[in-house]
């Protein structure tokens, strides 16, 4: 592990170890390892936290998105509009249900879907929009909601990176028809393994997801549709119930870390800092800067990659989310997108660099990151 890691789950665990251990011990002693009160308690707590009537837990954020699409009966012949600047899971699930992802470019200021480009992408085949609340910042939801309503489209929010973020003071995951969350360990609310959840106010969507996550059965051994097996383990649910109580505090600490980065890194030539839109909050799953001012002679991304290597040599971690936007991925060659077609996403993929970000990151460590960055910029 580098001296300054991208995130440090050990520090978090050490701080709450007695509570986690007690929760785990209690599930182990209960003999109830699948379902049971640990799972239903967490689902209730999480629905309350997000402010929706229902929460249905499942095995991962990927499954949450897949179950949402299936519950809305989206399939072959349908189109789903989303961002090309996200983790593969967002688009992969669209393909897995047999529908076609339609990528529109991002707003370079927020890295989120540019809602001004939505209407032009809507066709008679469009069924849904998947806004991704990237890096922890809520996507611009107001225009998206009115455009979706006008064109009768579903909104499936990809909330994997932004649990606790708000748009106009409303929690993400409560703004669309369905909210999809991941509890992968690196997310702001992370399990000790895989986990996910769907939030919704719609009882019919809830019923469909309950059916689909349990092999397509409502009860007993009668199967109505082809489902999957997607469960949140009782152990993970018990751990998540403990951690949920700390989530707001951790998100506030992330906010302080982001503000401190803002102070430390302002006015350094060659980088630009992340911004938060007026109606949005961010819970800073990532603190992502841009390395700008590339020379004409440099290959796209070269400057950023050199800086990353420099930092790595002095044991400061940094990450590139995402080095190749989805519309240009080999898996989507058949969709026919060309380089240059979604220029803001492509430029972002060449410039972004995510710095170490976690609630327990210290001021001294952040100063080292600043010093390292300055040295890296001077050295290239
Ligand atoms: C992590 C992530 C997912 C998938 O979540 P898993 O729990 O890893 O399946 C989906 N979308 C985005 C934007 C993510 O960051």
Description:
The relative contact order is 0.16. The longest helix has 22 residues, at 9-30. The strands form three sheets. Strands 1-9-8-5-4-2-3 form a seven-stranded mixed sheet, with helices on both faces. Strands 10-11-12 form a three-stranded antiparallel sheet. It has a two-stranded antiparallel sheet with strand order 6-7. The model has no long low-confidence stretch (mean pLDDT 97). With 380 residues, the protein is of the alpha/beta class. It has helices at 9-30, 37-50, 61-71, 89-96, 118-121, 142-150, 203-213, 234-244, 247-265, 302-313, 343-351, 363-379; strands at residues 54-58, 79-82, 100-103, 126-130, 154-158, 166-167, 170-171, 178-182, 196-200, 271-272, 287-291, 352-355. It has two domains: 9-105 and 113-244, 3-Layer(aba) Sandwich (Aspartate Aminotransferase, domain 2), CATH 3.40.640; 247-378, Aspartate Aminotransferase, domain 1 (Alpha-Beta Complex), CATH 3.90.1150.10. Helix 2 (37-50) runs parallel beside helix 8 (234-244), helix 3 packs parallel to helix 4 and helix 3 (61-71) packs across helix 7. It is built from twelve helices and twelve strands. The protein binds pyridoxal-5'-phosphate (PLP). Pyridoxal-5'-phosphate binds at residues 60-62, 86-87, 89-90, 132, 158, 160-161, 182, 184, 194, 196.
Protein traits:
380 residues; alpha/beta; Aspartate Aminotransferase, domain 2; Aspartate Aminotransferase, domain 1; 2 domains; 12 strands; globular
Classify the beta-strand content into a percent band. 5-15%
CATH class of the largest domain: Alpha Beta
Give the % helix. 25-40%
Count of all domains: 2
Q: CATH homologous superfamily of the largest domain?
A: Type I PLP-dependent aspartate aminotransferase-like (Major domain)
- The second-level CATH architecture of the largest domain is 3-Layer(aba) Sandwich
Straight-line distance between termini: 25 Å
The string of secondary-structure elements, in order, is: HHEHEHEHEHEEEEEHHHEEHHEH
β-strand number? 12
Low-confidence stretches: none
Largest sheet: 7 strands, mixed
Shape: globular
Total DSSP helices: 12
What is the CA-atom radius of gyration, in angstroms?
21 Å
Structural class: alpha/beta
Q: Mean pLDDT score, rounded?
A: 97
């Amino acid at each position: 592990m580098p001296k300054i890691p991208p995130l440090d789950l050990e520090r978090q665990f050490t701080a709450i170890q007695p509570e986690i251990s007690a929760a785990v011990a209690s599930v182990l002693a209960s003999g109830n390892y699948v379902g049971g009160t640990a799972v239903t308690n967490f689902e209730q707590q999480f629905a309350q936290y997000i402010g929706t009537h229902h929460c249905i837990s499942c095995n991962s954020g990927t499954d949450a998105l897949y179950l949402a699409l299936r519950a809305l009966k989206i399939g072959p012949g349908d189109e789903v509009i989303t961002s090309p600047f996200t983790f593969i899971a967002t688009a992969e699930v669209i393909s897995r249900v047999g529908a076609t992802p339609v990528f529109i470019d991002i707003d370079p200021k927020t890295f989120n879907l540019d809602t001004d480009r939505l209407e032009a992408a809507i066709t008679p085949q469009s069924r849904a929009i998947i806004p991704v609340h990237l890096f922890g910042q809520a996507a611009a939801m107001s225009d998206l909601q009115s455009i979706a309503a006008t064109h009768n489209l579903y909104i499936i929010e990809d909330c994997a990176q932004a649990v606790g973020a708000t748009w106009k003071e409303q929690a993400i995951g409560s703004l669309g028809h369905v909210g999809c969350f991941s509890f992968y360990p690196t997310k702001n609310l992370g399990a000790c393994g895989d986990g996910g959840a769907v939030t919704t106010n719609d009882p019919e969507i809830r019923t469909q997801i309950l059916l689909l996550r349990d092999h397509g059965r409502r009860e007993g051994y009668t199967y109505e549709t082809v489902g999957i097996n997607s469960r949140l383990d009782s152990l993970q649910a018990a751990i998540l119930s403990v951690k949920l109580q700390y989530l707001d505090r951790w998100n506030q600490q992330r906010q302080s870390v982001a503000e401190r980065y803002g102070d430390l890194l302002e006015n350094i030539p060659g980088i630009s800092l992340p911004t938060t839109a007026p109606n949005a909050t961010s819970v800073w799953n990532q603190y992502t800067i841009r390395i700008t001012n590339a020379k004409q002679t440099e290959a796209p991304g070269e400057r950023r990659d050199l800086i990353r290597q420099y930092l790595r040599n002095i044991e400061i971690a940094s990450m590139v989310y995402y080095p190749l936007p989805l519309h240009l991925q080999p898996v989507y060659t058949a969709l026919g997108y060309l380089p240059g077609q979604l220029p803001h996403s492509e430029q972002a993929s060449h410039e972004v660099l995510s710095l170490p970000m976690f609630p327990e990151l210290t001021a001294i460590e952040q100063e080292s990151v600043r010093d390292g960055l300055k040295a890296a910029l001077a050295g290239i």
